[in-house]
Amino acid sequence: MNWDLFPQFLATGLLTGGIYSLIALGLVLIYKASRVFNFAQGHLLMIGAFVAWWFTDALGWNVWLAFGAAIVFAALLGLLIERVALRALIGQPILATVMMTLGLAQFLQGGTIVAFGASQRSLPELFALRAIILGDIRLKQNLVFAFAISMLGFLLFVLFFRYTRWGLAMRAAAEDHQLAQSVGLRVPRIFGMAWAIASVVATVGGVLLASISGVELNLSIIALKAFPAVLLRTRIHSRRDCRRLDRRRHREFGRRLASRRRAARSAPGRHRAVCVSAHRLVVSSRWIVWVETDRTNLRISER
């Protein structure tokens, strides 16, 4: 092995892996929401890239305008898939939902071939094809900017899940579906939101990759490369490991949470229909969350 090329391969791999990690985020969202691996995630990525290409080729739109239109289409497609194909399977065995995602993957594959054909297409450039030279490392500018967009997407999702009502609701439903329903959360609607977001991140990743390597059916295979990251993340955040992390979080926020809990009890605000599991405590800039001794007695008040 030529070790002189190792920094080049390492930098290229890290930049490409950043885009793959954005695609893996969609897999994690659906798994946390429904405990099912979405085997159609790669096909959502593929069809999003083909839709963006169609807007530029058939309608003559600017590539960035086509990018935004593909994102809107992906969100609507995710909502439609959850409503038509998966909502009826709520409460059914996990295997039934897994088989549905496999069938959905084949349906999207066939629909893409019928609608757009099977030949490889070329998406207009999102970024200039120039090289960024850092010493002995030469990086493609479009790959660097695609990595930056992926990291920006991660930042937006972190803010969404921490500071928005929908984000908190999705985190709560991921802990316990029955408990979330008992306090008024509409879990099927949260499932639809998870599918819409997963479809959007798949489309973003698909368009970024298609701008580098082209639009083709093999884009659907790329999602398989994200499965190891999802499996590793699932193993790390198993129930046992979550309890271990929560104990450290309890020690860190215990005193602050106790004082805010007493303040909230003395002057309670409007109660929200959001819950967390009995072993998890969350403190954010907008919410004060506490867990009573009884798991069914969960309340969240505004600061």
Beta-strand portion reads: 5-15%
Number of domains: 2
Give the % helix.
55-70%
Mean pLDDT: 76
Task: List low-confidence stretches.
Answer: 269-303
Main structural class: mainly alpha
End-to-end C-alpha gap? 59 Å
Radius of gyration, in angstroms, nearest whole number? 22 Å
| Biggest sheet overview | 2 strands, antiparallel
Strand line-up across the major sheet? 1-2
Could you explain the architecture of this structure?
The protein is mostly helical and 303 residues long. The chain folds into 2 domains: 3-237, no CATH class; 242-302, no CATH class. Helix content is 65%, strand content 6%. It has helices at residues 6-34, 41-57, 63-86, 94-116, 141-163, 165-175, 177-182, 187-213, 227-236, 239-266; strands at residues 131-134, 137-140, 287-291, 298-302. A hairpin with a 2-residue loop joins strand 1 and strand 2. The longest helix has 29 residues, at 6-34. The radius of gyration is 22 Å and the shape is globular. The model is unreliable at 269-303 (pLDDT under 50).
